[in-house]
Amino acid sequence: MLPVPERIRTLAATSSVAKLSVDGAPSRARGGVDERGRPVLLVLPGEALHGLRDDAVVAVNLTAMRQLGDVTHPRGLIEVQGWAEVVPEGEAREAAVAVAAHSADESLFEALERFGKPDAPRLLRVDVGQVVYLTGQESGVLDADDYMGAAPDPLTETAERVLAHVNGSHRAQLTAGVSRQLGEAAGEVWLWELDRFGATVRVDESLVRFPWPSPAHTGLCLETAMRGLLCSC
Fold it and tell me: For 87, which of 7, 38, 60, 95 could close a Cys bridge (C-beta 3.0–4.6 Å)?
């Protein structure tokens, strides 16, 4: 299993901004997560954060979801708590790309083209204080150093692609392989998470972990390990 800080950073990297509170009051939220795991927000004129000081206390709720057939399930809930700060102009384009990945708002162009103008949309990010997380039956708190010091699983992009392919085209093989591993017929089986240390499979309402014999160091190794589970029957 991924170390907790790395797992939370991985979830954050694939999450959407679901909720924002400013000094304890709810506010409209639209944004994404930058490469360091900090929530990045697009704030329009008239919204709470637009006219507030840069060090306003904020809490941003991130949700990581998993589509299984026609049903979307939450994989993890993350609340990043800290202080709002303006994205420096030299980093604004990168921040806009992070927001656009989840919310393709035309105001992003104005935020870049009219950067720093009092009546222009603003790009803000969170100076992280701590991170509260809930994933399945696990919950806890990470301080800023542990969270920011970690990085997402380097195989995340490959893992998400392989996971989607298996769930879309090879569930019968997955069910057979999992049944063989468990020593009994498995019910409804979906691939839930995939990383360099193993696979987590959803069997009915339970999550079952299958670790690899050794960690996968490349995307090809990860695909080979996954084929081993599919072909274990």
Answer: 95
